[in-house]
Amino acid sequence: DAKTTQPPSMDCAEGRAANLPCNHSTISGNEYVYWYRQIHSQGPQYIIHGLKNNETNEMASLIITEDRKSSTLILPHATLRDTAVYYCIVSLNDYKLSFGAGTTVTVRA
Amino acid sequence: GAVVSQHPSRVICKSGTSVKIECRSLDFQATTMFWYRQFPKKSLMLMATSNEGSKATYEQGVEKDKFLINHASLTLSTLTVTSAHPEDSSFYICSAPVGKRLYEQYFGPGTRLTVT
Fold first, then answer.
1. 3 state SS of B25
2. Distance between CA atoms of A88 and A47, rounded to whole angstroms?
């Protein structure tokens, strides 16, 4: 699976949009981009995934660049409960997820 | 949404004993489940893939004789840490994909194992 690079940490203000970048320059044509998050001392939670097109659901939006070498997860209105470690994962659609270090997002009031 | 439970949530055991951790899918069937471990302030590391009715598939470097996995039914997988040592102390988490939505895995709440 292709490797991903994320900033180790970022802060954002409550109520503002949080934009989380992820680089995956070695992604292959049939690999998907997945985003999960892990709140402290809990199991990870699925957020969203995509292949080529931008995606949106009730939790977030995923913007994938045209060359697919990077993507951005957008939390439209961050709340304190969004404080977590966010993982960007690139994988074939075969169940196995390889978690990197992720980005520790701290939402501040 | 789908729920995955783990039991126990926390366990403390003495060195040399064995500990069993259960992972259950509560409202769906899971032919495949995954076991991860996570050290403090580190990311999750996939240990093995648990397959209902067949042997588990272990990731490179994971001792199959030490971490016994049994997937006895479509809703239960167990991980047994045999002859536990302090270095086995970790946060163990299981996950299961829901039906054909392979990309959307549901994770259990995790089990905190402390070996003294």
1. strand
2. 10
Of A43, A87, A101, the CB nearest to B110: A43
Q: What is the pLDDT of residues A34-57, one digit of tens each?
A: 999 999 989 999 999 999 999 999
| Between B111 and B97, the higher pLDDT residue | B111
A96 touches B at CB < 8 Å: yes
| Residue contact A46–B104, C-beta within 8 A | yes
Q: Is B103 left (phi over 0), alpha (psi -120 to 50) or beta?
A: alpha
pLDDT at residue number B112:
96
Q: Name the residue among A32, A45, A87 with its Cβ closest to that of B103.
A: A32
Residue A8: predicted pLDDT = 96
> Are residues B43 and A93, on separate chains, in Cβ contact within 8 Å?
no
For residue A27, the distance in angstroms to the closest alpha carbon of chain B comes to 17
The distance of B17 to chain A (nearest Cα, Å) reads 25
Long-range contacts of A58-64 (CB under 8 A, 24+ apart): A60/A35, A62/A33, A62/A35, A64/A33
pLDDT recorded at residue A96? 76
